[in-house]
Specification:
123 residues; mainly beta; 7-stranded mixed sheet; 50% strand
């Protein structure tokens, strides 16, 4: 049974930082592309970042480029999202997801999802 469990969310002031973690189990982690998505109240799920199987390639949404960094540790079955210079518009539930085949920015491509962690940025 595949499980993805996020942690690290919380309340932070604008300009602050948070580091999200997502621990995977029940799958061969190194064979999956990992993505981060977010969903704000009343809005559709939005792509944030994707990282390749080996971690050498990353793609970011324009809205977070230069502020967020995705990384992974395949030995720990964990993917991270370092979020700096946070803005109130970054407030959302952040979820990690695993894709067996593609470095996709589309949530429909992903096979497994975590339950999400809330990030709230106050102004």
């Amino acid at each position: 049974q595949v499980r993805l469990v996020e942690s690290g969310g919380g309340l932070v002031q604008a300009g602050g930082s948070l580091r999200l973690s997502c621990v995977a189990s029940g799958l061969t982690f190194s064979t999956y592309v990992m993505g981060w998505f977010r969903q704000a109240p009343g809005k559709e799920r939005e792509f944030v970042a994707v990282i390749s199987r080996g971690g050498g390639s990353t793609t970011y949404a324009d809205s977070v480029k230069g502020r967020f960094t995705a990384s992974r540790d395949n030995a720990k079955n964990t993917v991270y999202l370092q979020m700096n210079s946070l803005k109130p518009e970054d407030t959302a539930v952040y979820s990690c997801a695993a894709d067996r085949y593609y470095d996709s920015t589309h949530p429909e491509s992903y096979n497994y999802w975590g339950q999400g962690t809330q990030v709230t940025v106050s102004s």
